[in-house]
Amino acid sequence: MSKRHDPDELKRKLHAFAKEAPFFQLMDLEVLDFGPRWSQCRISPRQQLRNPNGSVHGGVIATLIDAGITQAMLMTDEYQVGVREEKGFLTTVDLRIRYLRPMTAGAMTCESKIVHLGRRIIHASSAIQNDEGQDVALGDAILSLISRST
Amino acid sequence: MSKRHDPDELKRKLHAFAKEAPFFQLMDLEVLDFGPRWSQCRISPRQQLRNPNGSVHGGVIATLIDAGITQAMLMTDEYQVGVREEKGFLTTVDLRIRYLRPMTAGAMTCESKIVHLGRRIIHASSAIQNDEGQDVALGDAILSLISRST
Amino acid sequence: MSKRHDPDELKRKLHAFAKEAPFFQLMDLEVLDFGPRWSQCRISPRQQLRNPNGSVHGGVIATLIDAGITQAMLMTDEYQVGVREEKGFLTTVDLRIRYLRPMTAGAMTCESKIVHLGRRIIHASSAIQNDEGQDVALGDAILSLISRST
Amino acid sequence: MSKRHDPDELKRKLHAFAKEAPFFQLMDLEVLDFGPRWSQCRISPRQQLRNPNGSVHGGVIATLIDAGITQAMLMTDEYQVGVREEKGFLTTVDLRIRYLRPMTAGAMTCESKIVHLGRRIIHASSAIQNDEGQDVALGDAILSLISRST
User: Fold this and answer.
1) Main-chain dihedrals φ then ψ at residue D107, nearest 5 degrees
2) What are phi and psi of D42, to 5 degrees?
């Protein structure tokens, strides 16, 4: 962690920021908890996020994975130093979702973790479960970290 | 096409349905045109669909690809007979998005096509461009068609 | 497991079969252990499986994942009944490899597991480590099981 | 192209190198033709590259795509300058194969192209057909170019 940031203070600010994010509100997305290299996020989808047959849209599930993986990066040194301090960029290069079971009722919780944090290439994985603990989807992403100093 | 449907009439009904779809409205998503095995869809994202830095959320781009590929299936015989008439299911098994360039301004248009339509497994691909004709993202999906008669 | 097979006897036969498989011999591939829904396989690559710079070819790593996932299916009821007894088919629909670290020296071990075994669609994952226990690659696959009786 | 290389001479040297590559010989792999950002490669698989049921192993098809995409990079400026002259690295980050049809007889030809060549991230795609012109597999890859000067 960058010396300039107290981890607790940083987390409070990031959490408050997530609560106010307009897109997260639009998607009923809540950041439950997070730390360096992991996050737990949740969507309790209202009717508008569902297909006529009641199942949640694939794009909503993709959004939960994409947001969860980004959230898992925010408290890492690599993000705080490379992106925040040195004005670099973190971009998603590739996102993949494997849909295991339709999400028909209740909320879904997504656990995300950074599985490989290289200097330039980052690999992350997510797993989404429904309220009964059944697997709903698996996700993974490749991100690219472009710092100004390299 | 199923003998019971006039293609023009079917297309009109499906297009009207897409215009009224609550989730499409939420995501500023418009179905421009479509036919058996292809579609052209568009998102003109308002501010709420963007990150604080102005780029469109990855989940919005994933939504455009997911919706475009589903739309490309609707007028196929396989969908109209297997799903509509015989009460089968079409589900997305796998969705992948390769992000090529941040989507910072204007609208984005997605061309989707079904590249392989097997009896049970369907492969589809999408390409998204911005208003300057630059590639923004590539997508592909694997769908599973489960008809009651098989 | 099909009632007609003793699991120990089945495993012995499958293991002997893997040892004799010409393609496995060509790729220096050894099946270490396996059971229903999991396998552990290994490649100790000779020079011919390496690039001029000494790193193992990406196709060799893909082969290890593909073989490991198939091996993880062989002792499942779904395979023994659906494919062996009922003359169905198991095919790989999609295979993905995420390369985390070049494989420059020693052997690599691949743990594969079936993470979702639906009636028609199967999701599997693999992780490859080098002899120092470092992650070399992650893999996943989607398989389709087509039994004659459905 | 780097000023120090004559393209025709470079191509001759690269083609001769591919013909002698031990792994390509092991996999019956032939580089038919190539240029900056594209390649055409072919595998005429002998019996040892096939499953007992006669279909070509998935790892062989993955090898053809991986090799074809790498070959499509060799004559680009980015490779010749960034990797050859400046002693940088080109690595495959992600490889995906979508299997459309079993490869049961004859040879298969793979067309590969670089679809997006960024400064650090490269996206490539391949399509494999059998001798009847039927699609056998689709592939894509993400590569990372790490030059010493950046």
Assistant:
1) -105, 165
2) -150, 140
Of D100, D116, D125, the CB nearest to B123: D100
* DSSP secondary structure code for residue B50 in this structure: B
Q: What sign has the CA pseudo-torsion B82, B85, B86, B90?
A: positive
- Smallest CA-to-CA distance from A2 within A77, A114, A54 is with A77
d(C-alpha C90, C-alpha A100), whole Å: 18
pLDDT bracket for residue B148 (50, 70, 90): confident
Side-chain half-sphere CA neighbours of C29 within 13 A? 27
Nearest neighbour of B98 by CB, restricted to D98, D123, D138: D123
Q: pLDDT tens-digit profile of B83-117?
A: 988 889 999 999 999 999 999 999 999 999 999 99
How far off is chain A from B95, nearest CA to CA, in Å?
A: 5
End-to-end CA distance of chain D: 19
Angstrom distance (rounded) from CA D121 to CA D141: 10
Exposed e or buried b per residue across D37-62, where buried means at least 16 C-beta atoms within 10 angstroms of its C-beta: bbbbbbbebeeebbeeeebbbbbbbb
**pTM across the whole model:** 0.94
Contacts of A5 (CB under 8 A, 6+ apart): A80
Residues of chain A with a CB closer than 8 angstroms to some CB in chain D: 93-94, 120-121, 142, 144, 146, 150
Sheet with D29-35, strands from edge to edge, namely C29-35, C38-43, C108-117, C121-130, C135-146, C89-99, D89-99, D135-146, D121-130, D108-117, D38-43, D29-35
Closest C-alpha among D4, D60, D9, D11 to residue D38: D11
* A56 and A103 Cβ atoms separated by less than 8 Å: yes
State how far the Cα of C126 lies from the Cα of C117, in Å rounded to an integer: 15
- For residues B54 and B57, give the distance between their C-alpha atoms in angstroms, rounded to a whole number: 9
Q: What is the CA radius of gyration of chain C?
A: 16
Closest CA relative to residue A67, chosen from A138, A126, A108: A126
ipTM, 2 dp: 0.95
Orientation of helix B58-74 relative to helix A58-74, angle to 10°: 160
Among chain C residues, the shortest Cα distance to A134 is held by C116
| Burial letters B57-80, b for 16+ CB under 10 A, else e | bbbbbbbbbbbbbbbbbbbbebbb
Q: Of B14, B6, B2, give the one whose Cα is nearest residue B41.
A: B14
Helix axes D58-73, C58-73, angle to 10 degrees: 160
> Quick one: chain C helix, strand, coil %, rounded to 5?
30, 40, 30
DSSP letter, residue D56: B
Q: Say how far apart CA B70 and CA B93 lie, in whole Å.
A: 12
**What does the alpha-carbon distance between residue A36 and residue A52 come to, in Å, rounded to a whole number?**
38
Element (H, E) at B96: strand B89-99
Q: Are strands B121-130 and B108-117 parallel, antiparallel or unpaired?
A: antiparallel
Judge: D57–C63 Cβ closer than 8 Å, yes or no.
yes
- C-alpha closest to that of D102 among D32, D150, D31, D54: D54
pLDDT in tens, A17-37: 999 999 999 999 999 999 999
CB contact under 8 Å between C66 and D47, yes or no, is no
